Amino acid sequence: NTECLKWDNIINLTYSIICLNIKDNLNLKKLTSKDRIGPHNIDIISIIIGSSLSDTQLEKRKNGIGTRVIFEQSSDNIEYLMWFHNYLASRGYCGNTKPKLQIRIRQKGKVYYHYRINSYTFSSFNWIHEMFYKLIDNKYIKFVPLNIGEYLTPLALAIWFLADGSSLDKGARIATNCFTLEEVNFLCNVLKSRYNIIATLNKCGKDKGHIIYIHDNSMKLFTKIVKPYLLPSLYYKLGSYK
C-alpha cells in the first residue's frame, strides 16, 4: 500500500508539472509567420488549391515572409463559407470569430454583400502563392499553374465546384471568367486527363470571359467524384444528379 501511495504521488506530481508546462506554453506570444512551417494535411492543401481556382486570393505578406489565404464569398453562398471557416478554425488556421457580413459598392453603384475569411500567415504557404502568381509590373497576377493536375484531388475539385459551380441544362458549369481562353481550355484538358471528365469552354458573352461546361455524359462520373465532399444542402448544384 505504501508503494502504491508513493507511485500515486509521483503520478500526481508529474501530471501537475505537465499541466503547468501546457499553461506556460499557451501563454507564449503568438507565433510569427516564419515559425509556422507545417506540415499541412493534404486536405488543407486541397482546399486551398481548389478555392484558389475560384475567388480566393493568396496574399504575400510584409517582406515576403509568409502568405495568408483570403477567402471571400457572396452572401448567397453563406452556408459553404461558414463550413469553410469552421474547417479552418477547428484546425488552427484562422480565428474562431465567425465572419461578418460586409458591404461593397461596385461599379455603377451596385451593392455587393459578401463575407471574408483571412487565414493566419504561414511561410509554408509561400510555395502555393508561387504556383498561382507571377509578379508583373510590381503587381501579383493570378494564373493557372501548369502543374495544377498534380494537386487537383477529388476534394480540390469539389471545393472548386462548391465555390464557382452550378447545374446547367443536363450538365454543370464552373465559372472561370477570371482566366484567359488558353487557361480555361487547359483546365478542360486537365479534367479529361486526370478524371476522364469531358468538359469544354463556353463563351459568357461579350467581354465576359469563358466558363467550363461539364457535359451530361460525364455528370455521373463527376457526381461520383465530388458528391462525397459536398454539403447535403448544396446537392442542388448537381441538378438532376443530386
Description:
This is Homing endonuclease LAGLIDADG domain-containing protein. Mitochondrial DNA endonuclease involved in intron homing. GO terms for molecular function: endonuclease activity. The protein is of the alpha+beta class. It has one domain (42-237): Homing endonucleases (Endonuclease I-creI), CATH 3.10.28.10. It contains eight helices and ten strands. The strands form three sheets. The protein has a four-stranded antiparallel sheet with strand order 1-2-4-3. Strands 7-8-10-9 form a four-stranded antiparallel sheet. A two-stranded antiparallel sheet has the order 5-6. A hairpin with a 2-residue loop joins β5 (133-136) and β6. The longest helix has 25 residues, at 2-26. Residues 1-29 have low confidence and may be disordered.
- Return the structural class: alpha+beta
Q: So, the CATH homologous superfamily?
A: Homing endonucleases
Strand order of the largest sheet: 1-2-4-3
Name of the CATH first level: Alpha Beta
What's the SSE pattern?
HHEEHEEHEEHHEEHEEH
Rg from alpha-carbon coordinates: 22 Å
Which CATH architecture? Roll
**Quantity of strands, as a count:** 10
Fraction of residues in helices?
25-40%
